[in-house]
Design brief:
Length: about 100
């Protein structure tokens, strides 16, 4: 699946579209529309290791190819974006190197 990562830079948000990500989103369905759940459930993403990819707590993740953003607050621009709250880098030195990311 494709996801978009929004990483805070000096004044704005750097947008990186990432293909080949495994994701289990914590969302419910209401009237045929996927919405974020408000029960504290976390989304889990497994992002293959990419040289130069910057990931930080507080970054945003979006299901699919997300829009370009301006310098304002992330949630104000994309209310349904999920915020990274845990990161773990798995680097066993093989093609299975990946980031394990949780977001709410």
């Amino acid at each position: 699946m494709t996801v978009t990562l929004y990483h805070r830079t000096g004044e704005g948000w750097e947008r990186t579209v990432l293909p080949d990500v495994w994701a289990r989103w914590s969302r419910g369905e209401a009237g045929g529309v996927m919405i974020p759940r408000d029960d504290g459930a976390e989304s889990l993403l497994l992002i293959p290791w990419r040289e130069g990819l910057a990931l930080s707590l507080g970054d945003g993740v979006w299901d699919g190819e997300g829009p370009e953003l301006t310098a304002g607050p992330l949630k104000a621009q994309l209310p349904e974006v999920q915020i990274v709250n845990k990161l773990h880098l798995h680097r066993p030195g093989s093609p299975l190197d990946h980031w394990e990311v949780t977001a709410v």
